[in-house]
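Lecture 7 notes. Example A: sequence first, then its structure tokens.
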Amino acid sequence: MRLDNAALIFPAIRRRRWVNVFRVSATLTEPVEPAVLQQAVTELMPRFPSMYVRLRTGVFWYYLEEVPAPPTVREDYAYPLTLMQEKELRTCCLRIMYFRNRIAVEFFHSLTDGTGGMVYLKTLTARYLSLRYGLEIPAEEGVLDWQEAPRAEELEDSFFRHTNGVTLNDHEPDALRLKGTYEPNFLYLTTGVVPTQSLVEASHRCGATVTVFLSAVMEETILRWQAESCPNRRKRKPVKVTVPINLRRLYGSSTLRNFVLALNPGVDPRMGDYTLEQLCKRMAAQLAAEGTPQQMAGRIAANVNPQNVTLIRAVPLPIKNVIMGIVYSMRGESKGCINLSNLGRIRLPAAMEPYVRRMEFIIGTQRSYPNNCSVASYGGETYINMIRNIREPELERRFFSRLVELGVPVYLESNAPESPRKGAES
């Protein structure tokens, strides 16, 4: 299977400092039975042929190949989103893990995005609960019928179907780069657990959706931080929050592969100061203006069209990797400061709800972003996961403190190890 359009970049520019893996997890009310989970993983293999794959290297392109046997479930260890080494990617690009009551699935991003990953997790958890407790769980709310054959539309590269062929000219200025002391071999994860209703009410007070509100608060946090460290306004750089857009909602696609494009709404602090309400209005306006089907089709075309150029297709893969790395550095992460990816409210069939206490979504750090943020809501709680590969916890400290100031109570959890740096985490 060919990699979808969004997936092409991930194997080409992966680095040891950039894991390019994301996690979805379900925390149950009782400890996980590994043998039952393994049975569920095995039974789902025919239903999800695009998930049970390994990465292969061709002459001109990377591609995905179905694995002969399902991956073995293993106990969770170390910290979330450990690097997928070359050997592991050649074996399977999917990990299924358990720890006490939690089932966690980690995906190499070439397989799918957060929405597709959540469909797999929901279906896996549903099958596990059916085997464990004899439940009858209907195929609804993102749970697929595990006995059904995979549908063609689930396996398609929707980017090619929804391009308009006209490349959008999207030149934009580079954004501020967040920096810190790199921490090798560890990712710090801080989770802010907030009441969803409080978050919704705070968002509505600013006239915004939850995604717009959180993005604007993140933007405001970075603007204030930059102002403290750079008193000379003329030397300040644009602050932009990268917001992934789920294109399935725009085009009605049901693909389980990647179908997301990112926008970089933001402000130039050299123009003056902004209130949070103004940031929310600008954020909402920019997302609305740039997130139309027509505009996004032009962005899709900018990515798809080069694949159809005969000269580029004939270039050997090692040279393509160099070219894609250069293009990514010029047009990719340099345009934003941090990702804020919100999967929204996660719903489950009613039969599953008594057995599932928590659902989460965690993205890794980027190639040049030392911090990232992912959000998901379930059961009246919203889980805001802030991850970093640097020692300094300054961004999450400022961000969560600002939420508290805005009337949103935050309960914090952290995986920071016991060390001399522990005090800084607190």
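Example B, a different protein, same format:
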Amino acid sequence: MAETQRQNKVGRLIQKELSAMFQRECLSYCGGKMLSITKVRMSPDLSIAKVYVSIFPTSNKEEVIEGLNKGTKELRFNLGKRIGKQVRIIPTLRFYLDDSLDYIENIDNLLK
């Protein structure tokens, strides 16, 4: 099912704010790695945000995702302070690894 315009709008807002949070405030979750939020998919009722994260360097990716998922309460609270006036409910955050860059790199190596 295609995402609605509202889902896309809220997803982009969350992507922008989480990216800014990871750059400035939430460095403890990154574990010294560079995080990039590639996509945020919202549930139809806007209560759950699936956040896809690309991690560089690529070692210990699962540990970083696990750490993010453990810290969702604090991340959600900080996100709420930033976007509380723009949305009715602050969605529950779920973090997933976006391995599309690894896939592209693998194809690139195969073509060499």
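Note on Example B: The two ends are 37 Å apart (CA to CA). The mean pLDDT is 86.
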